[in-house]
């Protein structure tokens, strides 16, 4: 397939799963900024979890400062924990974590997971307003599992035929090697079908990963294609299902 030229992408918006922690290594922070710049270069807008701290803050500021549009989707309950100081772009408050994930999927044409996983917990510290890409890494890290949960859910949705949008892992310095080995073991032991291993792609840097997503061809599953989903079971309506799947 012909390489995608910079500034010419099949995607209008890309969802980036990332957390309110920056991690302990600068390579993760650099990767978030690099990804933001790559989206700007390809004229792809950002959809993300709406926070202003951690990797969320870094990638959103990189896209916004480069002239890209940013849509942040965040549960109202988490706004006081994940938003500190300046936010970038459009912030859409929602009622729940389920609605957050559904709205992120609805607005996006593809998904990328940065190193994580993180999920905020209440912090005893009140952070003063900070600005700039570098200053964000000084904040106290918050820990948890949110990025991994979001990633596995959109992979599962693809497996079940709910959508056929590309999913990618930004495997910075081998961060996701253990997860990839776990999935390969599940395939080897018969818990995941071999062809389902290719529902998602991975790459060590933003440029290569986005290119793989551009070239991605959905894995066809005859069984999943025949399923008819009652999205009310997931707290969604049929219209939203159609929008997630488009």
Automatic annotation (TrEMBL):
It catalyses: 9-ribosyl-trans-zeatin 5'-phosphate + H2O = trans-zeatin + D-ribose 5-phosphate; N(6)-(dimethylallyl)adenosine 5'-phosphate + H2O = N(6)-dimethylallyladenine + D-ribose 5-phosphate. GO terms for cellular component: cytosol; nucleus. One of its GO terms (molecular function) is cytokinin riboside 5'-monophosphate phosphoribohydrolase activity. One of its GO terms (biological process) is cytokinin biosynthetic process. Its EC number is 3.2.2.n1. Keywords: Cytokinin biosynthesis, Hydrolase. Cytokinin-activating enzyme working in the direct activation pathway. Phosphoribohydrolase that converts inactive cytokinin nucleotides to the biologically active free-base forms. This is Cytokinin riboside 5'-monophosphate phosphoribohydrolase.
């Amino acid at each position: 397939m012909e390489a995608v030229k910079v500034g010419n992408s099949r995607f209008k918006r890309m969802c980036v799963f990332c957390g309110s922690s920056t991690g302990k290594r600068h390579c993760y922070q650099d990767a978030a900024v690099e990804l933001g710049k790559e989206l700007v270069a390809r004229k792809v807008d950002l959809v993300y979890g709406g926070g202003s701290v951690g990797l969320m803050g870094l990638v959103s500021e990189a896209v916004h400062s480069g002239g890209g549009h940013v849509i942040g989707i965040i549960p109202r309950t988490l706004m006081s924990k994940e938003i500190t100081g300046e936010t970038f772009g459009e912030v859409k408050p929602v009622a729940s974590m389920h609605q957050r994930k559904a709205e992120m999927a609805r607005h996006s044409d593809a998904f990328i997971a940065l190193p994580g996983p993180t999920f905020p917990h209440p912090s005893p510290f009140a952070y003063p307003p900070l600005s700039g890409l570098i200053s964000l890494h000084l904040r106290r890290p918050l820990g948890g599992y949110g990025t991994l949960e979001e990633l596995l859910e959109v992979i599962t949705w693809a497996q079940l035929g709910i959508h056929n949008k590309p999913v990618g892992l930004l495997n910075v310095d081998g961060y996701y090697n253990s997860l990839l080995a776990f999935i390969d073991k599940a395939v080897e032991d018969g818990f995941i079908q071999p062809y389902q291993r290719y529902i998602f792609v991975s790459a060590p840097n933003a440029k290569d990963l986005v290119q793989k997503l551009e070239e991605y061809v959905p894995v066809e599953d005859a069984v999943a294609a025949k399923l008819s989903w009652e999205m009310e079971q997931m707290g969604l309506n049929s219209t939203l299902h159609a929008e997630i799947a488009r």
